[in-house]
Structures are given as structure tokens and as C-alpha cells.
Amino acid sequence: MDNLFLKYMGTREGKQAKPAKKVGIPGPVITISREYGCHGKRIAEKLSEILTDKSHASGENKQWRWISKEILEQSAKELKLSSSLVKELSDYKHSSFFKDLALFFSEDFYPGNATIKNTIAKYIYDEAEQGYVIIVGRAGEAITKSIDRSFHIKLEAPLDWRAKVVAEEEHMSLSEAKKECLIQDKRRAMFRDYFEKGRQDVDFFDAKLNCRALSDDEILELLVIIAETRRFV
User: Quick one: which of 155, 151, 159, 118 has its CA closest to 8?
Assistant: First the structure.
């Protein structure tokens, strides 16, 4: 199966994409996007354990993984930058110092915005092609949407509910937590928009789940049923 995503990104940069490495039938992959304050990583970790156990019980013996911080760590290695700097740059958190640095040096020394995001995207797509992986954040839904054996969800909740969660976990006031939720939501939306180009969520997500209305166990039960129905396990 041709890597259509990498061909697309190559076209965006004006470069010819390298031939895709054949890995058989790509996937399965589940992506979890989330609004700030919704626990995507916690869901992903538990889901990977459940799906692994079910795979072993069926005799398939596939090990499901979940990745989040690994996305930035591996991309940083490729870019020869620290993972903290890659996170700041991809989250639009870099200071004026970094902006000035980007202008002063050529891309040979300081990779541009497109290079950073495309490096992140390539790592995500390569992992998704290998399959049996749950990808948290970083526009995984847009990057892997072309993979047939994929399912994409978004965890969301009302702002006031998320602010209470953040205030308790980060030990800040409700007003500070609400502001932080809005800032983080905006940064995540900006990163996603690089790949989604303003298209509606319905073009990428197969389901949206309300974390205020559903417990972790209920969300997990729904995702396991979907994985079984689609023969991911």
C-alpha cells in the first residue's frame, strides 16, 4: 500500500517523497485526540493492556503499544534537537529568542516549522503502519486517516468540568485552570490545523466521547467493543 500521506507531505514541501517501505497491511491503529483536561494517556495505557490481553487469549499474541511522549523523543533524535525544544516549537510556545534564532540560522542548523511537523508526522505514520498501536495526540487522526484499519476518537468535555480537573491536578485556581485549558486547546488546534487545513472534525474523527458523561471504564468498554467489531483483536 502506498504511503499516500507521505506523498502528500512531500508535495507540500516541494520534494519528491521516498518510496514507502512495505509492511503488509497497515494497522490496526487507534488514535486518541483530547481537549485539555481529558485523560487521553490514561485511557490509552489501559486500552493497550486490555487489547493485549484479548489478543493473547485469542492466540494471536499481538502486543498493543501506546505512544505519546515517544513521538517527540524520536522526532527530536531525527532532528538532532532536544525533545523539550521540539515540544515547545510544535506547541507554538517558543519565545522571541527562538524566533530570532530561526531567522538567523539557515534550516541546515535550525529546522523550520514544516520540517519539524513533517518529521513528527512521518514517525506517527510509520508506527501506525506497523500496527497494534494507540497514538495519543499530535494530529494522529489526520496523519493516519488513510489507513483502512484505523479508528479515531476525540475526548472532550465542557470547559468548566475540565477546568475543575486541571485545577485539582495542577494545584491552581479555577480561573487559572480555565485560562490554561483555553491556551492548550488553542495550541493543539493550531498543530492539528497544519495537517487538517481547516476541515471539520467529522472528516477525521469516527467518534467523540464526553468525559463528563462517561467514566474511564465506560469509554474503555466502548473502544474494546469497536476494536472487536472491526477485528483489530
Answer: 118
